[in-house]
Specification:
It is a single chain. With 418 residues, this protein is mainly beta. 14% of the residues lie in helices and 53% in strands. The protein has helices at residues 2-44, 74-83, 180-183; strands spanning 47-51, 55-60, 63-68, 93-104, 108-119, 131-140, 145-154, 160-175, 190-208, 211-225, 239-252, 263-273, 283-297, 300-313, 341-354, 357-369, 379-391, 394-403, 408-414. It has a 16-stranded antiparallel beta sheet with strand order 4-5-6-7-8-9-10-11-12-13-14-15-16-17-18-19, with no helix packed on it. A hairpin with a 2-residue loop joins β13 (283-297) and β14. It is globular, with a radius of gyration of 34 Å.
């Protein structure tokens, strides 16, 4: 009985061993078959020999197959261009173009087209911030036309800077008078066709870390016509030319000029408009700016600005302080309030929402005044906006601002307001 049990166990062990060997043999055969099949499949698959922007070359056995790439249509090209997020921090030159419709209560429906060039001179290394130049063309159905060129050129090691702005505009405008009280009266609104051209530039040398100083000049020409109530002009001519010379001093501690996230910037400029420079109205202008940027929480920046303009002497109606444009008191029509002096304070929170999309909200106030007693009459200002990081640290902004007396306006621009 014991022999029978041992023989049975031995037979079972032998049968199990034979079966395992057969399974292993079958598995090896299957794996070899799979390997051969995959090798044949890979051999049958085309091999990429060359790939260009227009076509791809494949090796198919003993032959070569050339497959042209499908060209994107115009809409796809525009979308790809806008969504491209290329890092240009190591480039010497790069350009971008953008355009779109806009609307506000003064110029009505319009179209703006902007071209931007960012570059580094041969004398500048890659650690130097890029210089920039922006050309903006703006048209609207109301007859508004504007051509504006502005920029900032940095020289070797940022030891010298050249800042400039040139603009020509022709537009149907309005004139309310001079002084807060006159300008605040809606019935004083007079239609006016205005043409204006100006150039302003300064050339600065770095005299200490982050501190720059140098000469400045300004030329301004304004011609107005079709004003119904000439009494509001106080006997001044409709065509005025102004020539100014002076100096500028800047302290620039910003991390990036066009889109600062931290640091301090202070500006003081003095321009003299004497009669010896063919000025009919002699005066001295003092411009000041103080900006501060600070991180609040993740992807949120607090930006603040205090801006002032003070005209000492006898400025013409065209050269008086006129707050309200795409940079300060956004939403106010430039020229709605004008007087010898102006002050404006604004604070803005800039929050990145998702990926390259962001939003802002701002609040502030300003004033125009002839003397200190008029500083109590304030011009409130609030607004919201969207931001799209078109290129690294370069935002396209869409803002909508509100102010006193029903003033409001839409702004489409490249770069931050301050």
């Amino acid at each position: 009985m014991l022999r029978f049990i041992l023989l049975t166990i031995l037979i079972i062990i032998v049968c199990w061993a034979v079966r395992a060997a057969d399974v292993e043999s079958l598995g090896a055969g299957a794996r070899a078959a799979d390997t051969a099949y995959m090798a044949n499949e890979q051999a049958a698959m085309p091999k990429v020999l060359l790939e260009t922007d227009r076509e791809t070359w494949y090796e198919m056995g003993d032959s070569i197959l050339v497959v042209p790439k499908r060209k994107p249509n115009l809409f796809q090209k525009i979308v790809n261009y806008i969504l491209t997020d290329k890092d240009h921090s190591k480039d010497r030159l790069w350009m971008s173009f953008l355009g779109g419709p806009h609307y506000d209560t003064d110029t009505k429906l319009g179209l703006a087209v902007m071209g931007n060039a960012y570059f580094r001179l041969k004398s500048c290394d890659l650690a130097t911030q890029p210089s920039w130049a922006t050309l903006r063309l703006d048209f609207s159905i109301s007859g508004y036309v504007s051509v504006r060129l502005s920029g900032n050129t940095l020289f070797a090691n940022d030891k010298r800077r050249f800042n400039y702005e040139a603009e020509f505009e022709s537009l149907p405008s309005y004139y309310w008078g001079i002084g807060y009280d006159e300008c605040d009266v809606r019935s004083n609104e007079n239609k006016m066709r205005r043409k204006q051209a100006h150039f302003q530039g300064d050339f600065l040398w770095r005299v200490a870390p982050k501190f720059y100083i140098g000469p400045a000049l300004h030329w301004n020409w304004v011609r107005a016509k079709e004003i119904a109530n000439m009494d509001l002009m106080d006997g001044q001519p409709l065509c005025v030319r102004s020539y100014g010379l002076g100096f500028t001093a800047d302290y620039d501690g910003r991390d990036v000029i066009v889109n600062a996230e931290r640091g301090l910037y202070a500006h003081a400029g003095v321009l003299f408009y004497p009669k010896k420079l063919w000025n009919e109205y002699a005066f001295t202008r003092i411009d000041t700016r103080l900006c501060w940027y600070h991180s609040l929480w993740r992807n949120a920046i607090l930006a603040t600005e205090l801006r002032g303009q003070f005209n000492i002497g006898n400025p013409s109606w065209a050269m008086m302080a006129q707050p309200g444009d795409s940079y300060n008191l956004r939403g106010y029509f430039k020229g709605r309030y004008r007087d010898k002096h102006s002050l404006a304070l604004q604070a803005e929170v800039r929050q990145r929402i998702w990926n390259r999309l962001g939003a802002v909200v701002w609040g502030g106030c300003g004033t125009v005044f002839h003397d200190a007693s008029g500083m109590k009459k304030l011009l409130p200002n609030v607004g919201i906006g969207l931001r799209w990081e078109f290129r690294k640290r370069l935002n396209v902004r869409v803002d909508y601002g509100w102010g006193r007396s029903g003033e409001h306006g839409f702004i489409f621009a490249m770069g931050e307001a301050f």
